[in-house]
Amino acid sequence: MSRRSIRWALVVVVGLLGPATAPAAPHDPEHRLDPRAVSPLPSQIRQVEPAVVGLRVQVPRERPSAATLGVERWGSGVIFDAAQGYVLTVSYVLLDAERIDVSLRDGRTVPARLTGVDLEVGVGVAQLEGPGPWPAAVLGDSSAVQAGLATGTVGVSAEGDLGSGDPLAAIAKVCAERQFDEIVVTTLPQHVSRWLKADLPHQVQRRFGLPVATIITSY
Questions:
Q1: End-to-end CA distance of the chain, in Å?
Q2: Cis bond before residue 29 (omega within 30° of 0)
Q3: How many other β-carbons are positioned within 10 Å of the β-carbon of residue 125?
Q4: Does the pTM exceed 0.90?
């Protein structure tokens, strides 16, 4: 019996053991919960959660993106087509992908093939191999989304190392374990990046004596 079933059974037992003439709960309409005040977010998350998957991608070392994004990448995605098994994720995870493994919520790992990448929009699509139907999320209409609305976040677990919050210390730790020919620093735009304001790329180059390439994101 599941924990939920056990808790429900105990509630029933306690109710049966109470006095037969137990007083009724006071009725106060001013303190009744307004159904409109109950957030539907938890139930919506439970509906979407099975469609959120993990991706592990391998890229040939000779591909252009391997030098900056690495030959092995991880990310999350969402299945949006139950019949065809299409998975939506960010473009850089799938860029130049040679092998794609998708981890489902039920413990299965399913291979997938690259369907397309749109670098301008920043999304990529892969297709699960094998027969469906797959757990899929229903695409909604974002035209009604406004600032201040409640949102939920659904992700997947991942393995990896948590580095130091000090970028120089984090780089020093990695460089002590392996040898590199170049260091790539990726930052937010100039007006919001504290690392660019602190001249991090030049600090890294002076300390480690390696060429430093700087990639500044835009939004």
A1: 50
A2: no
A3: 19
A4: no
Token readout for 120 is: 């301008």
183-187 and 212-216 beta bridge pairing: parallel
Identify the structural domains of the chain with CATH numbers, from first to last.
Answer: 43-139 (2.40.10.10), 167-216 (3.40.50.620)
**Range 42-74 burial, b when 16+ CB lie within 10 A, else e:** eeeeeebebbbbbbbbbbeeeeebbeebebebe
Cα angle 23-38-12, degrees, rounded to a multiple of 5: 40
Quick: pLDDT tens for 19-68.
Answer: 434 444 445 555 555 555 545 556 777 888 889 999 999 999 899 888 87
CA-based Rg of the chain, rounded to a whole angstrom? 25
The tally of CA atoms less than 13 A away on the side-chain side of residue 101 is 10
